[in-house]
Amino acid sequence: MNNIGRKGILRVHNKMGDRFWNQGPAVFQKPKKRVRFLDQETGKDLVFTMVQIQEVNLQKLMGHEERAICLEEEKMALLNEVNELRYQLQTQKAESILRIEDLQVAICTEVAANMEAVTRAAELEKTLAEEKTKRMDAETRLLEQTRETSTLKNALAQERIDLEVQRRQWEEDKACLLEEHKQITSTMKETLIQTQKTLEKERLQWQQEKSSLVQTIESLKEIQRQWEEDKACLLEEHKQVTSTMKETLIQTQKTLEKERLQWQQEKSSLVQTLESLNKTLKEKQSVEESNDRLQERLLELEAEMEECLKKTKRRSMRKRFIQFFQRNRVTDSSIDY
Length: 337
What we know:
mainly alpha; coiled coil
């Protein structure tokens, strides 16, 4: 029998070997050469088909002894092949168990991951609920702040209206005070100008009288010794009054400038100015009293001059001298004013 026929017989007797597995005396060992692993279902179908095909030929060969021996040998080979197949099945089963265990570990890992994801989702839902609560609280506070803002806006609008009314009233008061200040300033300026003109006029007259008096000084040496002291006092007083007048003018200019810049203090400054004027009037009265005393002294001097000067032309000079002192008195009074 050729090799092809023997291989076909080995495949045909695949199931027959299972029938004699427990009857053989020999202990089958793991073959050194591994046969190709076949799928179990495919192998069974193939074996079943081959068995059906070869059964006819087997019936023809059953009568021959040689074929029986060959079949026995083939049976042993088939048994060895079946052993190999069983070994492969066990190996595949072990590998399948390991794969199942790996799959179970993977499933457990995935379940744990899913549980962690569920826990994380629950935490996220809790956080979301807290955020919603916070957002609602923030919206409530925002609504309250909006209401407060609206109330403050209304109050601010009313305050602006009140401030506008006060500003208009303030503008009216300011205009009145400025008008009053202008009138008073104008009056004071006119008074100062008139005073300056009067002083200039008196100064010119005084210069004229002085030139006239120079001509009479030689004839009045005796009298000059008597009224020299009075004249010195009058000149000193005149210097003081002039200095006071200058200081008053400077102070008045500063006061006017200050009043122009600080208009809010105009009323009080005007009151103080009026008080100062009253005081000046009182001082003027006292100066007039002093001038009266000087006039009495001049009358005494006039009497003395009448005794000394008997001529008519001397009498004219005496009148001019008296008029000079009277004008000085008027000048002093104007300066005090």
